[in-house]
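Minutes, project check-in

Agenda point 3 was the complex the collaborators sent over. CS summarized: two entities, 1050 residues total, and the question is how they sit relative to each other. Sequences were read into the notes so everyone works from the same version.
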Amino acid sequence: MTGINVAIPKSIDETLELLEKWGPDAAIIAGGTDLVVELKDKLKSWKALIDIGCVPEVRGIREADSNHVWIGAMSTHAEIASSTLVRDTAPVLANACAQVGSPQIRNRGTIGGNISTASPAGDTIPALFVLEASVEIIGPKGTRIVPIESFFQGPKKSVLAPCEMVLGVRIPKLDKEYISFFRKLGQRKSLAISIVSVAFVAKCQGPGLFTDVRVAFGAVAPTVIRARTVENAICGKQLDPKTAEYVSKLAFRDCVPITDVRGSKGYREQMACNLLYEGLLSLLSCSEAC
Amino acid sequence: MTKTKWVGTDVTRIDAKDKVCGTLEYMSDLSFPNMIYGAVLRSKYPHALIKKIDTKRAKELDGVVTVLTHEDVPGLNGFGIAIPDQPVLCRDKVRYMGDAIALVGAESKEIAEQALELIEVEYEPLPIVDDPEEAMLDTSPLVHETGNIHNHVKIERGDVEAAFNEAYVVVENTYFTPRQMHAFLEPESGVATIDDDKNITIWCGGQHPYRDQLQVARALGMNPRKIRIINTPAGGAFGGKDEITVQIYLALLVLHTDRPAKIVLSREESVIAGMKRHPMKIYMKTAAAADGTILANEVRVVSDTGAYASLGGPVIGFAIEHSCGAYRVENVRLEGFCVYTNNGVAGAFRGFGANQVTFAVETQVDMIAEKLGMDRLEIRKKNGLRKGDIAALGHKMEASVGLLRTLEAAENSRLWQLREELKAKPGAPHKKRGIGIACSFQGCGLGKGLPDYGAATIELLPNGQFAVGVSCPEIGQGNTTAFVQIAADYIRCSIDDIVMLSGDTGHTLDSGTSTASRSVYTGGNALKLAAGNLHSAISTLAAEILSVPESDIDIEYGSAVSKSCPEKTVSFKKIAELMVERGKTIKGEGYFIWPVSETELEGYVGIPHLLYSYITQIALVEVNTLTGETEVLEAVSVPDPGKAINPQGVEGQSEGGVVMGMGYALTEDTIIEEGITLTRNFSTYILPTSLDMPCEIETIIAEELEPSGPFGAKGIGEAVCVPISPAITNAIHDACGVWMKQIPATPERVYTALKSKEVP
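CS then shared the predicted structure for the full assembly.
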């Protein structure tokens, strides 16, 4: 092994220059929780790593305007999970971040990395889907904004062009009428890759009555998906535990999972339905949430 | 029993400070000047003939010091505790993905790894057999030319058919158990040096330094005395370092290069090449009378030992010995097969075959209790072994039997007493709680027919302290602390005056293995004999000093005293000074040979045992019926270790054992398909984390003193991880009515079982 070049740019402009200089031989490294594994397993052989830890433009969690929260790509899961702003205006994302990996991984791993890796099992992504977030991408031609749902093209595939990188995400704030949950099913309670995950956001019109329903699943399709069939079924319908069970069973219609070492296709389909049902049950059992 | 000052107290572990402060080095942390780094070329196929090995390009790489193949193994090209059927470096055939073909020594780890890629091996792939039952068929590809059945055990007693015909209830099931991984903290690693006289020293994680020495000597064709093995108490083992790991590779590298060498396996390489617990398929048919008396048990076990034997033979024997549980069963038909396949190698692992069969038999017993409407604890008490009983193999339980004591203590535990109350409050309506109980016994020592012995030394040092030597390595279980306590009470000195020597062929006599729940019993008994001899030597000098006859000398804590004239005393420190003055040495050696059962089972070695530890464990679980997730909320562990030399140490073993047995029951499995390992590291091999642990593990020590043991001790290292697994699966049944016949009981398996229960 001849080693690997590591560049530590101090600005976004410098980062873009480095990306252009190295081209496909370079990779952006943020927390490294996915990238270092790929290096170790020799799945990739980059000549250079561009460490964006000192780039100020990708840092911070703040109000972009009165309706939006902006989260820099370099924000760690731990930072997002403990951010008062995120917990108040997008609690489903704070919950999802709190369930990523382990404390060590949450302290290193970043939201920009989770998005860029484009794993169908990435835990922040279903939350970003139901929040209808947008991804800010920067590249040689400037900045562009892509809705999160259009960002992913398949497992580990996204719309990021060569020499482009994620700058941050813009999240429309949810007002207090919205309720949400995030639930992941893993093989254990911590350090687990999701077998299935679900994120749910809706406007609560009264006990068991939801509108603007948004449901997203992880690890049941080549990318994270919105489950529109089940969203429509829940929207405006008065739910009780019985009807909640019935509508949750529609979740599988939007799922096309695979069998792997973590779970079979059939189990994943059923779990998509049951995790949603379980979440709805807990919403129904605490109607004061509405 | 003798009054003790240290035994039975919570003495702080002697390695605690170094471990907590991080000053104790892992073997892989050791370095020497001019050291080379070794790397092993593993097979590309699970089963293939080797047509050609070309190392030329690798040798030409800058920084490569040596590239070794089978041609460079001076002695026997094989290793294996039972039979040396595993090649050090393969010559003409590979039998699993972990098989070693070449060994590189280079200036850096990176260069060594790069050189591996330059070694050209021409293979001719062979058909694979990855299912042990298929491997038993005549049509199967042969893993070894001698046949795929490595070992066959068959034991019959009584009249099984008549018992089944008379029985009120018969349960018949087939169980499957996983390939659990030891997952020790430090993968197989070590460092070696060689001096000008070709004396080799190897620092390496291990469990029997003297046997490692013999296996290395055999492969090198060298006098074992020229090889010193040193184990240090870091890194863990759990049985997975009982067999040779990297010792022979280290020795070959230093022998061929005259330079120090280091090998550290990556976790991924350890997963593929290292030992595992034998996966077993267990057929079991059990009969009982209307009153719950177990009448008969028919058992057929097929055990997958993978490509090489290691301890697969003794493990299947041990499994058969324990396959009827800790119960009286008069009619048995027990058969076990240990079979070669092209899967990863299985060998020794904490529990040694008891874990698999205990899962099966303890489920059977619960099923019988359910059919009879009998209390689960009562049926165990009714059939449980008592002293003097005849156990399943027809041997008499002659030593201490603490099973009933553990069952009774479990019955009185808070968890069992409050079980209905605790079950009634699940976290949500779709979550169901249940409680499970299981018990087992665990043979201590190597068993009938295998020579089992151990030696110990005690030497008075010039400063008045004592050097105590027992070679059974400290592998984290706490045996060296127990040895210090035992030695201090036999010598009658302070624990602070003991310098403990362990796991080093250069400084200790052969005390045997740190396996088989044997080291405290063996080392303790050898220390008792050594202390007696030491006292004679002390008495001789003390008698001279005090001018009294030797027979008048008594040993008290810290000094020798005249019995007739108690004011005449001389401290050990003073005796040490005079010993130095007079140019003498004062030391005692003890040689202990294990007692064995009178019963001999012709044709078998390692069974039965004379001595057993006993245990009952309870688990409270909550099952999420929507997902199949099982959470172990609380556990109770009631071991009978004989005398608990260090109660805190027993608690530590017990808690660790509960979590290891929980992983076995719920999540852990090394999945190998067509000879290829799919779970190559800890992202897919699912060990429990701290969040998965029960909120509370209560350990209640139920001591049934063993007269032949040091201060009444037996052993407890293994039993603690055994019955907890079926206690958990029995609790799942109690919670939601499904019997788990395959472990790990993953969420998907539990959910699938729940779904199939719904469909009548």
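Noted in discussion: Chain B has three domains: 16-23+453-593, 31-126+188-264, 280-447+600-758.
Follow-up: revisit at the next meeting once the mutant set is ready.
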